[in-house]
Design goal:
The protein is 75% helix and 0% strand. It is mostly helical.
């Protein structure tokens, strides 16, 4: 029963995050093209398929993954500063670039593309990627630079680190196979956001 409970909790938590992303994308509904709603449905379906795979894996335990710790958000103003930095960076790219989605949709696309690139590196070094992420997020010293790296790691590798931590429960061959699927789906999900606006 606890395995089913873990699977449902994972599914609910991931769908809450997906709902938040869909809300952010819908902020730009006036800029959608005629096929935008269909691309949004494709975005949700691809995301949901990936969530279902990871939720099913979360109920399995062949190996013990690195432990998940609760993330302290006591330094949330620094997180807002890092998010504002990403927003300004992507807003500059949107104004200078030609055919880019508007913010915050481009910000989501940008961060998911970074996560998918790190997922590509995770094919070779999955445990190291998770430990590097955890080292940045759960640094012992509470300094300004550690807080900046914490939020950089959360924004740039949070989705991938969660997926890799879940996949580390599997034996080597299955882990690598599903890691390729996670990389492909993360990349497709990021590209699908762009097709809403083109």
């Amino acid at each position: 029963m606890t395995r089913i409970k873990k699977m449902i909790q994972y599914w609910l938590r991931a769908n809450l995050f997906l709902f938040f992303l869909v809300l952010l994308i819908c902020l730009n509904y006036r800029d959608w093209v005629d096929t935008g709603p269909y691309a949004l449905i494709l975005f949700v379906l691809l995301s949901e398929f990936l969530i279902l795979i990871l939720a099913l894996v979360s109920a399995l335990t062949f190996r013990t993954p690195p432990p998940r710790k609760r993330i302290s958000l006591a330094d949330w103003p620094i997180g807002l500063l890092v998010l504002a930095m990403f927003y300004v960076l992507t807003q500059y790219a949107v104004t200078k670039g030609g055919n880019l989605p508007p913010n915050p949709s481009f910000l989501i696309t940008f961060l998911l593309l970074i996560n998918s690139v790190i997922a590509l590196f995770s094919l070779l070094f999955p445990t190291a990627i998770v430990y590097i992420h955890d080292g940045n997020v759960h640094a012992q010293e509470k300094t300004f630079s550690n807080s900046v790296f914490k939020y950089l790691a959360l924004f740039m590798n949070g989705v991938n680190a969660e997926a890799q931590r879940t996949l580390l429960r599997l034996p080597f061959v299955f882990h690598r196979l599903l890691a390729v699927i996670v990389f492909v789906f993360m990349f497709l999900i990021a590209v699908t956001i762009g097709s809403i606006f083109e």
